[in-house]
Amino acid sequence: MFENLSERLERSFKILKGEGKITEINVAETLKDVRRALLDADVNYKVAKQFTDTVKQKALGQNVLTAVKPSQLMVKIVHDELALLMGGETAELQLKSHPSVILMAGLNGAGKTTFSGKLALMLKNKRKHKPLLAACDVYRPAAVEQLRVLGEQIDVPVFTMPGESDPVKIALAAIQEAKAYSYDIVIVDTAGRLAIDEKLMQEIAAIKEAINPDETLFVVDAMTGQDAVNTAKEFNDRLDYTGVVLTKLDGDTRGGAALSIRTVVDKPIKFVGTGEKMEAIDAFHPARMADRILGMGDIVSLVERAQEQYDEAEARRLQQRIQKNKFDFNDFYKQIQQIKKMGNIKDLASMIPGVGKALKDIDIDDNAFKGIEAIILSMTPKERSNPEILNTSRRQRIARGSGTDIQQVNRLLKQFDQTRKMMKMVTSNKMAQMMARMPKR
Prior knowledge:
About 55% of the residues lie in helices and about 10% in strands. It is of the alpha/beta class and about 450 residues long. An eight-stranded mixed β-sheet has the order 3-2-4-1-5-6-7-8, with helices on both faces. Strand 5, helix 9 and strand 6 form a beta-alpha-beta unit. Helix 4 packs across helix 11, helix 7 packs parallel to helix 8 and helix 19 packs across helix 20.
């Protein structure tokens, strides 16, 4: 997402490069290009104009320090205004009742049912809640079954009432079920509807009034661009929801919805869906998104994802094995599994400043590790624990067993050896630094 916008903004800032100071003329030229870039990204026209007017006002009111170039100052102003445009602060879920109730609303095909499952998994694993999913879509034939399958996949129970056609009754019964069995959150998945469908709009309003949810989240497909913003406004006029969820941000989207929706409906974006996996859900951080739009990466989110997979005891064990030169293919395989749990490889790489742009036209398959995993799993337990015994005949057998060739096996063994040496050197340096800091007796 935002690749084209990022490139266009970078080109816009080049207008100011080499300029000694900010003037009305060069600011006007730069911001004309910025506004065009925003409109091409499907940002609402009024939002784009208001944004560039504010940036111009702030830029002309700044005294440029000798240590800061005009283009750098402009990037800083645009970054701060982009963050404000998307809400400024991260908007947390407000869950006060017991059980807390989250009502999901949105259009057909926006990914509402899938997102309900993703949200349940996140609340269960990361925030240690005990969620219950309520299947209240009584219209789409496969909706209840889809939610039930998702519930099994993430080990979260799903409340259903076979034969009941009134979603209000199902939602109320689900809340009673939660009270009886100590579930602290109920996520109510409702039918997708069109803003023009008056009957269904009345129904979702009736559900909201009956269950009085702590949060009403409007789920919208980011790939629908400006249409998403218009629909969000119509739904908000009827439902007065508390937050927005943008799904499919990993798709070929121009990003206009993310930049416009907060201004148009004055409701925060609370979550984004970033892929097909059930773990592919992130809280929406406006400042971090502004970083990514301007090609600055998102190191904070990358570190957070790594910490979610971080096991302190395992890290200590690994460090000891590296120091004793015992790091083997079993350890290597475990590290690959942890990296895979962090999410889409290209998405992770794009969080590193400068890397996203470098990888723009490179297709990184999420199955990039499959060949490596096949080679490792084709080794015997003894070979995985003792890589030094892998002679030519063993390597040829591993190549046949993994569906690769001898060159690929040799390449992996060489990379593994280099990785092992590098990790030993890093841990040795850390130990030396720690010893140097210890007080002398």
